[in-house]
Amino acid sequence: MITKTRIWLSSPHMGNLEQEYVREAFETNWIAPLGPHVKGFEEDITEYLGESSYVAALSSGTAALHLGLQLLGLGKGDLVLCQSFTFSASANPITYLGAEPVFIDSEADTWNICPDLLEESITDLLRLGRKPKAIVAVHLYGMPYNVEAVHKVAEKYNIPVLEDSAEALGSHVNFQKCGTFGDIAILSFNGNKIITTSGGGALVSKNKNWKEEAVFLATQARDQAPHYQHSRIGYNYRLSNVLAGIGRGQMRVLDDRVAARRNNYAFYRDQLGEIDGIEFLQEPQGFFSNRWLSCILTPSFDIREHIRCELEKEDIESRPLWKPMHLQPVFEKARSYTNGTSEALFNRGLCLPSGSNLEKEDLWKTVEHIKKALV
Ligand SMILES: *Cc1c(COP(=O)(O)O)cnc(C)c1O
């Protein structure tokens, strides 16, 4: 059971309307991966992101990445440039399609894919006669990647971008929302994300055909016929109508959730920002992060681990920053272009309790024990 006493990193936070939508699903017997809430949820997301965003609600963010890469025409042996500093779900679907991830390290300003290294990797691979088929860029912890520079490189070499916005619903750059930058973008509604359907995701695109193609592939690729006929291989990736009901309720409170998480970050920064050796990632000019997780950088691996273990003793959950993909055993043989940034972040960084449902006293307690661990 999820107990009240433990202070969690990021736990689900329901509003007032989710159960009403779920009850409606039960009453109308739409207990299936189709129904009015699926369409309603998609419309809610479109309304949030802007008119020209076509949305396919799916069973997970990972499923959305898998379909997105397939829509970009990825196949066996193709190379995909993927941000190394991320959760494994950004990279795994590349391998589902028999393609090869090439990992690109981060820049210090956003912790996301480094535009210079990205260009370097492209020119290097072009020299080898291996033009990459796609770029997977991630808005990690809610901080947008350097959208302008990354897309400039992508356009220069005519390589499509899959924007992994799983952690960044509610973030924006110069008021353009994350989830609207890529040729295809994905969202996640997993239990730990800023809003959740318990499990779920979405594929977003400005191209209406891609949305329709995604839905087609997500529902077993059924041809139009009275019987079941298939000309292509499909998947069972559509979102359940029951879970879409939860999503509709969650969309109503998204702005509150963003505000609450940003308040967590502001509190931590207020309390810990003056301490020698503790650093925070700040928003570059024009960037707005949903602050999905509040993270600190400590002076060293040992100090980070000491803080983490002291918090754990108090039943406070914290977690090292993502371990870069180029350092993961499973991707040992993958090509990578590195500059040491993500490895240093992994060694020194810690994610602090960041849920929108944390009590003020939880935040005070966390800060108190971090300070104690540092003396
Ligand atoms: C959560 C997450 C995903 C995958 O989403 P799921 O819905 O859990 O499959 C992909 N990328 C990143 C960066 C994530 O944090």
Assembly state (oligomeric): single chain
The helical percent reads 25-40%
State the fourth-level CATH superfamily of the largest domain. Answer: Type I PLP-dependent aspartate aminotransferase-like (Major domain)
The third-level CATH topology of the largest domain is Aspartate Aminotransferase, domain 2
- Strand proportion, as a percent range, falls in 5-15%
Specify the overall morphology. Answer: globular
Spatial separation of the terminal alpha carbons: 34 Å
Description:
The structure is a single chain. With 375 residues, the protein is α/β, with parallel strands linked by helices. The protein has 2 domains: 235 residues, 3-Layer(aba) Sandwich (Aspartate Aminotransferase, domain 2); 121 residues, Alpha-Beta Complex (Aspartate Aminotransferase, domain 1). The chain contains 12 helices and 14 strands. Strands 1-9-8-5-4-2-3-13 form an 8-stranded mixed β-sheet, with helices on both faces. A 3-stranded antiparallel β-sheet has the order 7-6-10, with no helix packed on it. β6 and β7 form a beta hairpin. α3 packs across α7 and α10 packs across α12. The longest helix is centred in the last third of the chain and has 19 residues. The chain is globular, with a radius of gyration of 21 Å. The two termini are 34 Å apart. The structure holds pyridoxal-5'-phosphate.
Topology:
Layout: H1 18-28, H2 36-49, E1 54-58, H3 61-71, E2 79-83, H4 92-96, E3 100-104, H5 115-127, E4 134-138, H6 147-156, E5 161-164, E6 172-173, E7 176-177, E8 184-188, E9 201-205, H7 208-218, H8 241-252, H9 254-272, E10 287-288, E11 294-297, H10 301-313, E12 319-320, E13 335-337, H11 341-348, E14 349-352, H12 360-374
Parallel strand pairs: 2-3, 2-4, 3-13, 4-5, 5-8
Antiparallel strand pairs: 1-9, 6-7, 6-10, 8-9, 11-14, 12-14
Bound molecules: pyridoxal-5'-phosphate.
